[in-house]
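Slides due. Your pick:
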Amino acid sequence: MTAAKLFTEYGMGIIEFVFELYVFFVMFACKIDRKRNFVLRAVLSTAVVLAVSIGVAAFYTVFGATPWGRVLVYLVLFGLVFAQGVVLFDESVWTVLFCSAAAYAVQNLVYNIYLFQYFIGKLAGIYSFGSDALGTFLYRLMYYAVFGALAALMWFTAVKHISVRLPTERFNYKIFTMAVMILVVSVVLCSIEDIYFTRAGIGVDVYRLKYDNLFALRLTSVVMNAVCCISILLILSKTLSQRGLQRDVEQLRCAIAQSEQQYRISKDTIDMINIKCHDIKYKLDAAINGGASPDAVADLRRSIAIYDSNIETGNALLNVLFTEKSLFCEQHDIKLSCMIDGARLAFMDGGDLYCLFGNVIDNALEAVIKIPDSERRVIDIVVKAAGDMALVSAQNFFAGGVVLSDGLPVTTKSDKNYHGFGMASMRMIVKKYGGEMIVDTDGDIFKLTMLFPTAESGKTPSETTDCVK
């Protein structure tokens, strides 16, 4: 075989392998966030992958017949897919690595299942393709038909369920690292096995071995490789299960902490009411006795107006939440400005809605209450329609600096597990409803923007109520 023909065959084999790997990578990554200019990034990065693949094919032509040359080729191709995933998807490196590792495990599993059925078919005389052009065409046709059927089977039995859970859960890094290490070992062993069994083939048919005992060993090896890939997928799935359990525990801790915070706010509100009621009692006594000045009567009116602070948002739950928070703001000299069209969020579950806006307001309160200048103790929250989307915007001043990591502020508190989860839980809720959350700063102003897709219900939204407390 000439060097040019060998290079062409190896090049096609590498491109075929990368294509199969991409099929499963896309399956796993279909639910995670894409970066801006995704199509342009995909076109340019794919061109780079193809160019590097040609170089890999040249290397494969020279060193592909050696075990470590083969191992290096597969690891480089795996790295290419992983690197392109980092370029394309707006997720953590761990999430992209998860998709890459899972895709490689499934691709290897499908290939070994294909080999098993092919060996059995050869043994039974079902497959007997010639070495001419027609035989090669029929073999490739059979290969892609089996690959397509197995890919569909993998999607419906495993990949689909994992991909849905992937965007909203957190990693157990120890288990995940163990799965990747097992995958690397599997790549090394499969490469070495492939080299030596290929050398034991007869003529151009690398799957026809010289001795029956070698055939039995090859068949056993294929089964073991498949079992190893299944084990890797189970471990990766266990990683997600651990992530789900960790998320539930953190949500419980977050709920408990929010309950404690709510208790403190309610206590402060009740204390404020008691103080105001005490003041009103004496002012009323003075007014009854005729000793009240016009300024005292005006002050009395302002005190009573505090309790006429019901905020109407078009959503009963948000009415209660914002009314109570407005009383807290009144006590601490904080201006809460809100323009809320609660009907735009009617599609959200009540628990999600309370957790989302409870976090939004509590985070803003925690920031502005540290500001000594009362003129800058301002929180502005807007909920309105933006085309066929629901827009939620929150802004507030803050003191000090804000460091962002993975698109979220890094907490400065000692209990990073709980306090870091507040913003993370908000992002999970937003993603649950197919939305996007963006955190940004502009000088000493903290900006939080959330966009949700909505379906037009045909109902007329309640009018947006402007309120400043």
Observations:
- Residues 3-248 form one domain.
- Confidence is low (pLDDT under 50) at residues 202-206, 414-421, 457-469.
- The first helix runs from residue 3 to 29.
